[in-house]
Design goal:
The protein contains nine helices and seven strands. By secondary structure, it is of the alpha/beta class. The strands form three sheets. It has a three-stranded parallel beta sheet with strand order 1-4-5. The longest helix is centred in the middle third of the chain and has 15 residues, at about 90-105.
Length: about 180
């Protein structure tokens, strides 16, 4: 079932997909197989592995999803605040929005999925295999669980960049600056 879900979402490359067994009597257009043994065999030979995650992996830690029920902050839709245009229009509002999200994240911890991914990365790297965690999440829970080789597609709540010079720095202070004191 896992293999089928990944393949249906386009997450299994064509090489792996071609080697998975199809149900008896099926044609090329049939749904991908969920033959876990075939998946394990191919996975055991892979030297470069990408683990792709999104909001679902952090939802188990109590992180509100961006587009789900937790997708609103005050009366604002989160998607409308998380843009450079929104920052240009109202930087104070956007800072408050991100301050709130940072404060929520400081109360969350990695869950079993984050830990399993980090352990997988560690174990396979000791075998000389490369694991890259590619995530849309900005919560750093993968990093806190121990993942090291990561691509954070949307950045991090805890990294700031100067709009003038481009300098980036990690900032875990709460609040990030005195002006946001009490705005959570």
């Amino acid at each position: 079932m896992i293999v089928r879900q990944l393949a249906c979402r386009g997450l299994i490359n064509s090489h792996l997909h071609a080697h998975l067994k199809r149900p008896r009597g099926s044609q090329d257009m049939a749904r991908p197989s969920s033959d876990l043994a075939a998946f394990r065999e191919i996975f055991s030979k892979a030297n470069n592995i990408a683990i792709i995650t999104g909001a679902g992996v952090s939802a188990e830690s109590g992180v509100p999803t961006f587009r789900g029920a937790g997708g609103y902050w005050r009366t604002w839709q989160a998607q409308r605040l998380a843009t450079p245009e929104a920052f240009s229009r109202n930087p104070s509002l956007v800072w408050e929005f991100y301050h709130y999200r940072r404060e929520v994240m400081l109360t969350k911890n990695p869950n079993a999925a984050h830990m399993a991914i980090a352990e997988c990365e560690d174990r396979l790297s000791k075998q000389g295999r490369q694991v890259t965690v590619i995530t849309q999440n900005i919560d750093e829970l993968h990093r806190r669980a121990g993942s090291e080789n990561m691509l954070e597609l949307h950045g991090s709540l805890f990294k700031t960049r100067c709009m003038s010079c481009g300098h980036e720095a990690a900032n875990y202070k709460s609040p990030i600056c005195a002006a946001l004191e009490g705005k959570g």
